[in-house]
Write a sequence for this structure.
């Protein structure tokens, strides 16, 4: 017998079905609430509100569990590759060898951006934030792929997904080259997805460089760990825009803009800036932590806390381990890592953080690895976007394939001026 929830208001009782997910999460289906009661719910920041039923990613914030299509993130980060994980997230199953080979071939076939798009980079100032360029050029890609911006049939969707995943990497590297005044480097046919990205980022026409395999693997794992994360701000944005039947490229371009914010994907930059400020100012860790806990300072320990995780973010755990491995392999001793470790050591015992269940999140250590491999700071959030692309594509598709695909249109509680009459300008005070 299906479960029900009862709401009692103004002497009346109303019953609503309880939806139970495959991991026994429960939600009250209030689809009939306003029709029956004339009321809506209000939930600032959507902390208690589910926007959809989804079968892509599962998070248990209390246990610190993250699974893509049922596979634990730890196993995928350890054994899979970003391209195989992207296929899993987008199409729902781990690919066969044949499927993976076909997907890889599509990525290779579509790794060049249209030559005319290269000239768009001339119009950006060197100071243009790469996230702005990324969002703009994804929409520009749509101008060159008119048939693919509404990829309804499976074959066109597969190609659109491959084009986006492959070319966003090329656009990102070109955006960086533009910012440093270097010539844009073309991708190569003989390199893996991530090695090609590093090649386009770091190589020059007169210097062929082959990325260090340890660096390539660490970056590939960073992409895997960022590949999806249920209804986070940027993914919800992609779903919101996609729900209006906006095309895949426009919806993903909107997701890039949402990710940019320092409370979301921009936190990996904010963490490094925070650690650098502590390092350069010589401020002691205890003094810094006192400031963080002082509400009047309106400061936050960037890279800590999470709307869903009230336990250690499993991605942060993996990246922290990878940090040690990559820095020792590269023979790098980064004082910022020492500061981060001290901050974590203090925070996990400090009642302020413990009571609020604030733990390191995916952004706390990721910037340290990217810094160690030479990724410039203005590219940190761009790498987050490259990693998150499969999740955005899968969620956009889920909205489009939903049988009751409806435009997302939340309600509100109005508390502005009540009705009043127009006053001609001459009669205004
Ligand atoms: C990502 O949603 C996702 O899944 C996101 C993401 C993904 O993969 O897509 O995981 C990626 O965005 C990770 C988060 C990166 N952002 C940061 O690291 C920025 C720092 N963290 C915070 O600003 C904050 O923790 C958020 C934004 C992540 C979550 O904020 P919430 O859920 O709105 O929490 P809140 O602001 O209501 O805080 C609850 C309490 C408050 O104190 P009180 O008012 O109860 O006294 O905790 C405090 C906050 O002041 N608090 C912090 C804090 N985060 C929350 N205090 C100090 N430092 C922090 N980082």
């Amino acid at each position: 017998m299906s479960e029900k929830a009862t709401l009692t208001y103004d002497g009346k009782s109303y019953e609503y079905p309880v939806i139970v997910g495959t991991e026994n999460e429960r939600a009250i289906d209030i689809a009939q609430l306003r029709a029956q009661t004339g009321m809506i719910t209000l939930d600032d920041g959507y902390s208690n509100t589910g926007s959809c039923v989804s079968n892509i990613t599962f998070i248990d914030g209390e246990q610190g569990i993250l699974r893509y299509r049922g596979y634990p993130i730890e196993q995928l980060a350890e054994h899979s590759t970003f391209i195989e994980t992207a296929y899993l997230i987008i199409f729902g199953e781990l690919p066969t060898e044949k499927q993976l080979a076909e997907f890889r071939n599509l990525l290779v076939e579509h790794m060049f951006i249209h030559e005319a798009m290269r000239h768009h980079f001339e119009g950006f100032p060197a100071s243009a934030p790469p996230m702005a360029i990324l969002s703009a050029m994804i929409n520009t890609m749509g101008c060159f792929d008119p048939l693919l911006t509404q990829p309804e049939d499976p074959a066109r969707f597969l190609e659109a997904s491959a084009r986006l995943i492959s070319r966003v990497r090329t656009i990102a590297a070109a955006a960086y080259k533009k910012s440093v005044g270097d010539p844009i480097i073309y991708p190569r046919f003989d390199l893996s997805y991530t090695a090609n990205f590093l090649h386009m980022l770091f190589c020059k026409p007169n210097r062929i460089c082959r990325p260090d395999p340890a660096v390539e693997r660490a970056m590939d794992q960073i992409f895997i760990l960022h590949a999806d994360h249920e209804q986070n701000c940027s993914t919800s944005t992609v779903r919101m825009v996609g729900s209006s039947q906006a095309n895949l490229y426009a919806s993903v371009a909107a997701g890039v803009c949402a990710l940019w914010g320092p409370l979301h994907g921009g936190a990996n930059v904010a963490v490094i800036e925070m650690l650098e400020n502590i390092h350069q100012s010589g401020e002691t860790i205890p003094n810094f932590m006192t400031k963080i806990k002082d509400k009047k300072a309106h400061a936050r320990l960037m890279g800590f806390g999470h709307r869903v995780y009230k336990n250690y973010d499993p991605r942060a755990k993996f990246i922290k381990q990878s940090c040690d491995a990559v820095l020792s392999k590269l023979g790098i001793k980064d004082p910022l890592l020492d500061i981060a470790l001290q901050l974590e050591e203090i925070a996990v015992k400090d009642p302020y953080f413990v009571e609020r269940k604030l733990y390191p999140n995916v952004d706390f250590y990721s910037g340290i690895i990217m810094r160690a491999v030479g990724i410039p700071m203005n590219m940190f959030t761009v790498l987050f976007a490259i990693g998150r692309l499969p999740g955005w594509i899968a969620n956009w598709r889920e909205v489009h394939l939903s049988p009751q695909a409806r435009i997302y249109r939340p309600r509100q509680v109005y508390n502005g001026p009540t009705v009043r009459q127009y006053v001609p300008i001459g009669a205004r005070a």
In short: The chain has a mean pLDDT of 95. Residues 134 and 172 are 6 Å apart (CA to CA). The pocket of s-citryldethia Coenzyme A is lined by residues 45, 229, 232-233, 263-264, 267, 292, 300-308, 356, 358, 361-363 (CB under 6 Å).
